[in-house]
Design brief:
heterotrimer; A alpha/beta (413); B mainly alpha (319); C mainly alpha (296); A: 413 residues; alpha/beta; Rossmann fold; 5-stranded parallel sheet; C: 296 residues; mainly alpha; ABC transporter involved in vitamin B12 uptake, BtuC; two-stranded antiparallel sheet; 2% strand
């Protein structure tokens, strides 16, 4: 058995050496760790998208930036390529801890990103502090991740209160009062339900919220939806991820709840046209959904590069998971360039000090702010709506926020 | 060398591994020890007693959550909480054993399975108490998160479990349990109080699973209902079958091999589970004694220069 | 509590219950012939869904779903027969100590195998064919067209199944094997052939449920998990080996879940079945209509 581990270690080192040997002289590559769910019980679909984004990040840093400490920086070191090391966290705390440990102690990663499941990320966060290696949440949204003020943990993903603020703002603007929320029993679903509830109470909004939580493995949501329908809400908030998100739309349509009652989905799954319209057909028209970007929001040069390159490589439209994971890789590289160091502790210090360009904005910062804003940078959120079959998201009108509004909410007709 | 000496040497060598290996391999071995405990205790109830329970992972989860909630919400000291967690799981197992007492093998498997699924759903839906998928942060047992001391602790626990089971199986109780497995009616006729011993074995193996789960929770530092999914039970079954059912070393070998291999093959994601499933099918179809049987056959051949007799041969269908 | 709402729940429960029945009948049928539980039933359900989706999406087109249906059912049945021939037949050929245990381990490994294979081949995405029919109004409850088709399909298949088992020579042979294997063997019935066919038919029922429900519950690698839980709860409630019990159990479970959701809380919907199961088993350890324990 020990032999086996030794053999594995040799194989790892050999692959590392082979990677380093390709055209970059003797400088050993800087390793960026990607810790993301690639097998159940995690959500492997999300993990695959995050890995694709990280691969784009690697290509960008090595190709466009000329590696870290490249020609455009004033660092004394020779330009050094980066390499991403991917590890599967299966969405479970234990595998996440094991994966983080492996990335840092065996692969010598100087920074880790790619987290999707909050419980998995929370389990590894104390380890990040202990080992002093920066750990960026790409898509894990639980408030605790930043609210616990881990020294080495950062986030570039909207926290639940951001999302709750966006949809409550939209609902208020529509003058709706009775909200029904159907959420899956995951960290994401529960967190968002709780954040929405507490924001209503905190802002003393004239709204009632009826939150129904369902088990993610349950395929028939008819009883829950019938209950919601009987209460005649003004809007239904759809907090499912992946399959449950589709099941809610389909089954709400079956019992005549949607589109008669408006529905707002909590994240941007409808932006993948080949999947959304293929699964739902005309049933999918009139859905409003939160998205993280829209072609009318100016992407940065970085974001444009990534979406063009993504289309070239994967023959599909880049989605948020791709772009945010790409952005996290680039942020780590920028921090190394600014600090002229590949020492994880100095990268952490630089992340707190510096300003970074991301795919969607310039001047992102990770200050030591109070509460959940600690080490937190949130990309902007917009609410879009599909109003005809086979529409793509870049044609869909922006309903919210008012500053970017290009259309009003259209009830089904 | 005689077996006890060999075992002592093996354990000593295992205890010294942290001096040679980095923290990551030690973490993997710590988790492997956890699975050794689960697989061995499941082997007691399913292999030796013939009660094919499919709720073993759920009892580990119940122990883990009970202990964690005691420590987090009631402020109990961690070692006391772990013991209570084991007791809770044992009590739950005793209860489930009592409910399923009169069921025949297949009903038992189905009912325990339904119990496990329901337990998982309750833990994940009662997130107000358990934090559900958000994860319940658990205080650590030792004042460090380095796996080395935990490894020694888990190693001792795993060795104690296997040794305890060995003693139990050699005692009169062990014979009673095997009598129940072979034929419950005959066992009852021969004066074995089947009700009592079935409850006992349910409580016992669930209690061990609960203790292991509780220890594990206070090592990883975070609990989520993911550990209560059926995949976890399938993994325990795979370990026991691959290693060799109804042997003491089988589950040990199976747990270590499967855990280390699944870590090593992590990069292949889904494919590794496909490989494990195919391996188990092949073993069941071609060579039921598993790795432990293979090892023993090789050992006998080396010592005596002749192959051991075929495994067991039984009559055809029972009905 | 409003009466229309209650009727809606009851109807929704019955519709879903009829579909649970297909799973339960398949499980109990295989049990009564081969004395084993097929734990991979949900995975055959999942495969049925994938075959149906692929046939419609790549070959037949969305309008000819009714042609895809028999093909999907036959395909799953054929796969089942291969599995039986390669993996399960040896358990009757001697050399295996405990049949039920062997079958349990083999079929649980099959669930792991098929589920992960689905992810490897099709990726972790969800697919869905278009609805089979436009929505139907069933009294106060608007029912989705596909769900209605699935309900009718389930009823028709169960009817056909009952007719085959009750009225044909093949059904007679199967019933005799279920009653007494040795006796049937003496009467000149080819046991291994009957076993293979029975297993094929049993999993084909699950495949049919999967194909019928593909547009309702979508097709994805884990889609079989829930239907297996339900199928098992039903047969424990109804009693292993009792076809009537499976049907009553299925409808009962659908109703209890649906009414429990509205009267207690929809959050614990999937736990009500277990509550019902424990209640019934506490009163009758072999289920409502289970054969009386006849120790072999």
């Amino acid at each position: 058995m020990r032999k086996w581990i030794v053999a594995a270690a040799v194989a790892v080192i050999a692959t590392g050496a082979a990677g380093a040997g390709s055209g970059w002289g003797a400088a050993p590559p800087v390793v960026l760790g990607v810790l993301t769910p690639l097998s159940p019980p995690g959500d492997p679909a999300a993990g695959q998208l995050i890995v694709q984004g990280a691969q784009l990040g690697e290509a960008y840093i090595n190709g466009v930036m000329g590696g870290v400490f490249g020609p455009k920086t004033s660092c004394p070191q020779p330009a050094t390529p980066v390499r991403i090391a991917v590890e599967d966290d299966s969405g479970t705390p234990e595998k996440s801890v094991a994966g983080f440990r492996r990335l840092v102690t065996e692969e010598h990663a100087v920074g880790v990103f790619g987290a999707f499941h909050s419980s998995a990320m929370l389990a590894a966060a104390p380890l990040a502090d202990e080992l002093g290696v920066p750990y960026i949440s790409t898509q894990a949204s639980a408030a605790d991740i930043t609210a616990k003020h881990f020294a080495a943990v950062f986030r570039t993903h909207p926290v639940d209160p951001d999302r709750a603020a966006a949809w409550l703002g939209f609902i208020q603007a529509q003058n709706w009062h009775k909200i029904a929320l159907l959420a899956e029993n995951t960290d994401y679903g529960i967190g968002l339900a709780e954040a929405t509830k507490s924001l209503i109470a905190q802002r003393k909004l004239a709204m009632t919220l009826d939150a129904v939580i369902f088990d993610r493995t349950s395929a028939d949501l008819t009883p829950q939806l019938l209950k919601i329908k009987a209460e005649k809400p003004d809007i239904v908030l759809n907090v499912g991820v992946g399959t449950p998100a589709y099941l809610i739309i389909k089954q709400a349509h079956d019992i005549g709840l949607f589109p008669q009652t408006p529905m707002l989905a909590s994240y941007d799954f409808p932006v993948r046209p080949e999947e959304y319209w293929k699964n739902l057909g005309p049933t999918g028209v009139w859905l409003a959904f939160i998205s993280y970007f829209h072609p009318r929001m100016a992407l940065t040069a970085l974001g444009t590069w990534a979406s063009v390159e993504y289309a070239k490589r994967f023959h599909s439209t880049a989605v948020y998971s791709n772009l945010n994971s790409f952005g996290d890789a680039v942020i780590l590289a920028e921090a190394m360039n600014q600090a002229c160091s590949r020492d994880p502790k100095r990268i952490i210090a630089q992340l707190e000090r510096g300003r970074f360009d991301t795919w969607i904005g310039t001047g992102a910062t990770f200050p030591r702010a109070a509460g959940v804003r600690w080490h937190q940078w949130s990309p902007p959120l917009v609410i879009l709506q599909y109003t005809r079959p086979d529409e793509t998201y870049d044609q869909a009108p922006i309903l919210y926020p008012p500053a970017m509004k290009t259309g009003a909410f259209e009830p089904a007709h | 060398m005689r077996p006890p000496v060999l075992i002592a040497c093996g354990l000593g060598a295992a205890a010294l591994l942290p001096l040679l290996l980095g923290t990551y391999p030690i973490h993997v071995l710590t988790v492997a020890c956890y699975y050794v405990i689960l697989a061995s205790s499941w082997n007691l109830i399913a292999g030796y007693t013939g009660l094919f329970s499919l709720a073993h992972h759920a009892f580990a989860g119940i122990g883990a959550y009970a202990s964690a909630l005691l420590a987090v919400r009631a402020g109990a000291p961690v070692p006391a909480a772990i013991v209570c967690g084991g007791l809770c799981a044992g009590a739950a197992g005793y209860g489930l054993g009592s409910v399923t007492l009169r069921m025949r093998a297949l009903y038992l498997a189905l009912a325990t399975w339904a119990f496990a699924e329901s337990a998982r759903i309750v833990v994940s839906m009662e997130y107000g108490v358990t934090r559900g998928d958000l994860g319940l942060a658990v205080p650590l047992l030792l004042p460090t998160s380095s796996p080395r001391p935990y490894y020694e602790l888990f190693l001792v626990c795993a060795a104690a479990t296997v040794a305890g089971l060995a003693l139990l199986l050699r005692s009169r109780i062990g014979y009673r349990l095997r009598a129940i497995r072979d034929d419950e009616t005959v066992a009852r006729a021969a004066g074995v109080d089947t009700v009592r011993w079935k409850r006992f074995v349910f409580g016992m193996s669930s209690g061990i699973a609960g203790l292991a789960g509780a220890l594990y929770g206070h090592y990883v530092g975070l609990l989520s209902p993911a550990a209560m999914q059926f995949d976890e039970m399938a993994l325990i079954i795979i370990m026991v079958i691959l290693g060799g059912q109804r042997t003491l070393v089988g589950p040990v070998i199976g747990a270590v091999v499967v855990e280390v291999a699944s870590e090593g093959l992590r990069a292949y994601g889904q494919l590794r589970m496909v490989v494990f499933a195919l391996l188990v099918l092949a073993i069941m179809r071609v060579y039921p004694p598993g790795l432990a049987g293979l090892g023993r056959a090789l050992w006998t051949r080396l010592r005596h220069g002749q192959p051991r007799r075929r495994y067991h041969r039984a009559s055809g269908p029972a009905t | 509590m409003d009466a229309t709402l209650l009727t809606q729940y009851a109807l929704a429960g019955l519709v879903i219950g009829a579909i649970y029945c297909l799973m339960a009948v398949g499980i109990t049928f295989i049990y009564s012939v081969m004395r084993m539980i097929n734990w991979a039933m949900g995975e055959f359900y999942m495969i049925g869904g994938y075959v149906q989706y692929l046939l419609i999406a790549d070959w037949l087109g969305p309008d000819r779903w009714y042609l895809a249906l028999p093909l999907a059912i036959a395909g799953v049945g054929a796969l089942g027969m291969v599995v039986q021939r390669v993996l399960l037949r040896p358990m009757f050929a001697g050399g295996i100590e405990r049949l039920d245990e062997y079958a349990t381990i083999v079929t649980i490994s099959l669930t792991v195998l098929f589920r992960n294979l689905a992810v490897v081949i099709f990726g972790p995405y969800q697919f869905s064919p278009r609805d089979y029919a436009p929505p139907v109004q069933l009294g106060p409850l608007p029912v989705n067209g596909s769900r209605f088709v699935a309900f009718l399909g389930a009823a028709a298949l169960l009817g056909l199944f009952a007719w085959v088992v009750r009225r044909t020579w093949f059904g007679l042979a199967i019933r005799s094997v279920a009653q007494n294997r040795v006796g049937a063997l003496c009467a000149g019935i080819d046991l291994s052939r009957i076993d293979m066919l029975a297993f094929g038919i049993g999993v084909a029922l699950a495949g049919a449920a999967g194909a019928l429900l593909a547009p309702v519950f979508l097709v994805y690698p884990q889609s079989g998990a829930l239907s297996t839980v339900k199928g098992f709860e039903i047969i424990v409630i109804g009693g292993l080996g009792s076809l009537g019990g499976s049907i009553v159990g299925g409808l009962l479970l659908g109703l209890v879940e649906s009414l429990g959701s509205v009267l207690i809380s929809p959050a614990f919907r999937d736990v009500y079945g277990f509550g019902l199961l424990v209640l019934i088993l506490a009163l009758r350890p072999t289920g409502l209509w289970g054969e009386r324990a006849r120790e072999a």
